[in-house]
TrEMBL record:
<protein>
    <recommendedName>
        <fullName>ABC transporter domain-containing protein</fullName>
    </recommendedName>
</protein>
<dbReference type="InterPro" id="IPR050352">
    <property type="entry name" value="ABCG_transporters"/>
</dbReference>
<keyword id="KW-0472">Membrane</keyword>
<dbReference type="GO" id="GO:0005886">
    <property type="term" value="C:plasma membrane"/>
</dbReference>
<feature type="domain" description="ABC transporter">
    <location>
        <begin position="9"/>
        <end position="119"/>
    </location>
</feature>
<keyword id="KW-0812">Transmembrane</keyword>
<dbReference type="Pfam" id="PF00005">
    <property type="entry name" value="ABC_tran"/>
</dbReference>
<dbReference type="GO" id="GO:0042626">
    <property type="term" value="F:ATPase-coupled transmembrane transporter activity"/>
</dbReference>
<dbReference type="InterPro" id="IPR027417">
    <property type="entry name" value="P-loop_NTPase"/>
</dbReference>
<keyword id="KW-0813">Transport</keyword>
<dbReference type="GO" id="GO:0005524">
    <property type="term" value="F:ATP binding"/>
</dbReference>
<comment type="similarity">
    <text>Belongs to the ABC transporter superfamily. ABCG family. Eye pigment precursor importer (TC 3.A.1.204) subfamily.</text>
</comment>
<keyword id="KW-1133">Transmembrane helix</keyword>
<dbReference type="GO" id="GO:0016887">
    <property type="term" value="F:ATP hydrolysis activity"/>
</dbReference>
<dbReference type="InterPro" id="IPR003439">
    <property type="entry name" value="ABC_transporter-like_ATP-bd"/>
</dbReference>
Amino acid sequence: RKDNRGLSGTVLVSGQARPSYFKYVIGYVIQDDIISGTLTVRENLLFSANVRLPRSIKIHERINRVNQVIRDLDLQSCSDTLIGTDFIRGISGGERKRTSIGMELVLSPNILFLDEPTTGLDASTAQNVMSCLYNLSRQGRKKYIHKYLLK
């Protein structure tokens, strides 16, 4: 569970304590978007890749991952648009949510946990976000677990 001190709880894999490499095979997208409104979609994704991927992954591979995530999440039309703030007009709510998901996908996790990925989205936008996730999972690339399925 997430509280004001961070995340807490126990993670078991097949009933056993999680292995040491576990943090490298999972991703977690929190309910509230944590992205910089003064950067573009592409810049946010590249920032996530640069800060969180091992140094052994070269810059051209990071850029390739960012470009692949932009295609996978259908963000091509807004990839060079600012996210936006209260004072700067930016991308839509669905594009913002897909960017948040993309910030985890650039790490290429095997399993992606999402905390209520459609909260705050209208029905059409929520369907679009879920369709993107469904299409990726159908390609055999990721497994997705949504919080509301974990109760």
